[in-house]
């Protein structure tokens, strides 16, 4: 094993790109997921149907195929998106589908009495969601959301298929140029593991913090 | 007490599937009045209370608070109507059997949420009002606790403070002591007695006979969706007009009160 043969700056840069892809997609996907969860529980039937259809498609098809279709398929329709935005768009759509279900589960777990108390005091729907329902829903959904974030960080390796120079792609090229494949992929794996360990720690801290009121 | 009505409800109908829960119920409550609603379970008393706040949407009938009327038979929706319903909810505060405090907020945050989010009071003033109300229900020292740290009686007193913080025309209380141990009921009832003495308008669904007798200005008896009888408490408890009320009270009060009821009848 000769890790010193690996191009450390390139690996670090790949790590940064991976982290950026995962974080940006998670933030955007959370926003999308929240909106879709609301559509899913809405009283308006077309909104509910649209939400179900969206989740069904993006949860029911392989991420790699989605990435390919966005990057190679959309240009045929005249929409040309560079690799990194393509990757972020796909990861957002994909994780949004999963996260919407996590949010929906959290919302449904909030006691009916909370909606009644909020409604009875005349809170607007928006405020009721923002002040009363979401804070409680997120606490319940947090473990599942954390899982999604970690899974998404690893899924970003698929961006290498559309030429995004993220950690996995860096490892591939470092391996092929130095013939140190094993070292390169072990180093890349360590990079993912580090990011995800940090995320797990953050999640645990957040769960403790949000659980304080319930101790 | 003034002549002004805090709330007027006319011709309230409500059905759940095949079950007609309210059959044309009228109820007006004067400002400062304490109305107690009694009746067997399933008689529609909780539904009536929830209809007054429009938490339950009546199928027909009108609810008027402060000159603003919602006609429930008009099926429309839209912004104007939502606004109107909200106005009525703001003026009719609910206290629930299960408290329904917001578990992620401290006691004080629970109490000031309505004043801040709905009444748009400036924060320092809302906090001042909140602290005063917590003092009134005897929980000033718990202001920074979370609800999970409180006893049932304390939770219900916070819920009462939260309702009062809306500065409502009427406070609607749905069996406020039914989830509580006998020991804890007393502290909640004491708070309610105190509110009654201060002239707070209340409609209370309860099975607490001694309490009702003491604080009610009027007792309504509901049975299968109707208001069967409506009396001042003295008459209601000692000389009710209907045999239905008589048998209900006999069941509620147990053996020792029977002679009195028998003598009155």
UniProtKB/TrEMBL annotation, chain A:
UniProt cross-references to Gene3D superfamilies, sorted A to Z: MetI-like
CDD domains assigned: TM_PBP2 (cd06261)
An MF annotation (GO) of this entry: transmembrane transporter activity
Its membrane topology: Multi-pass membrane protein
Subcellular location: Cell membrane
GO cellular component, one term: ATP-binding cassette (ABC) transporter complex
Keyword Cell membrane attributed: yes
One Pfam family here: BPD_transp_1
SUPFAM superfamilies: MetI-like
Residues annotated as transmembrane: 49-74
GO biological process, one term: amino acid transport
Keywords assigned by UniProt, alphabetized: Amino-acid transport, Cell membrane, Membrane, Transmembrane, Transmembrane helix, Transport
Classification via InterPro entries: AA_ABC_transptr_permease_3TM, ArtM/GltK/GlnP/TcyL/YhdX-like, MetI-like, MetI-like_sf
Residues covered by the ABC transmembrane type-1 domain: 15-203
Assigned protein family: Belongs to the binding-protein-dependent transport system permease family.
Protein name per the record: Amino acid ABC transporter permease
Automatic annotation (TrEMBL), chain B:
Cross-referenced CDD domains: ABC_HisP_GlnQ (cd03262)
SMART domains noted in UniProt: AAA
GO MF term (any one): ATP binding
Protein's cellular compartments: Cell membrane
Keywords from the named record: ATP-binding, Cell membrane, Membrane, Nucleotide-binding, Transport
Chief location of this protein within or outside the cell: membrane
Pfam families: ABC_tran
InterPro entries: AAA+_ATPase, ABC_ATPase_HisP-typ, ABC_transporter-like_ATP-bd, ABC_transporter-like_CS, MetN_ABC_transporter-like, P-loop_NTPase
Membrane topology qualifier: Peripheral membrane protein
Gene Ontology CC: plasma membrane
UniProt domain ABC transporter: residue ranges: 7-249
Protein name: Amino acid ABC transporter ATP-binding protein
Natural source organism: Microbispora oryzae
